[in-house]
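User:
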Amino acid sequence: MFISSLASTYAGQTIQGYIYGVHAWHTLNSLPWSLHEDQINIMLKGAAKLAPWSAKQDLREPITREMIEAIGTQLQREDPLDIAFFACLTTVFYLAACIGEFTLKKLDAFNPQFHITPAQVCNDTDHNRYHTKVFALPSTKASPKGEEVNWAKQNSPSDPSEAFRWHVQLNNLPTTGPLFAYKHGLAHHPLTWQVFILKLKKAAKAAGFQSVKGHGIRIGATLEYLL
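Assistant: Predicted structure:
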């Protein structure tokens, strides 16, 4: 009944994820699971055939750490926009965060109730005594009331610590403005989602990578922490 209620509305892979989630919940709570794997597979195949076109998307290739390092070589270290972009890219990657949580939809869309500022970033030390950078996001899709996320220094050219340090120094950020903003004339422009994606695709193409997608950053980040 559960699978049939989702069919015709969601993609097959999405329904499969829901089923495995329910299965995991049963396992964690020591509850019986009556369905056999072959039964589930047959129902999932049927549900996949009924998926609407609107629920089907092209596969996203992961953006890996190595790709980010190559993208970094295509940027100008003294360019305010380039360094703001790279700092945002490495931060989003090592946080496995959404791009939209650190960029704005439009230049005039900044709202401190929803967008993080430099004043909401601090240093900390975790239980393994690693130095971390903590970001107090005022609001996210998963936590509308906000949450704290953090990354640690990496021993590679994609190190978010060095990119963030240089971004703050070069762009001389106002503490109450957008975290990822860059100098533009006598003022600062916030890094918008559109500018971020354009910069990502341009730098990636120059580095030899075609058709990169923004969501590939989270996919690559997940692989980075799992492998």
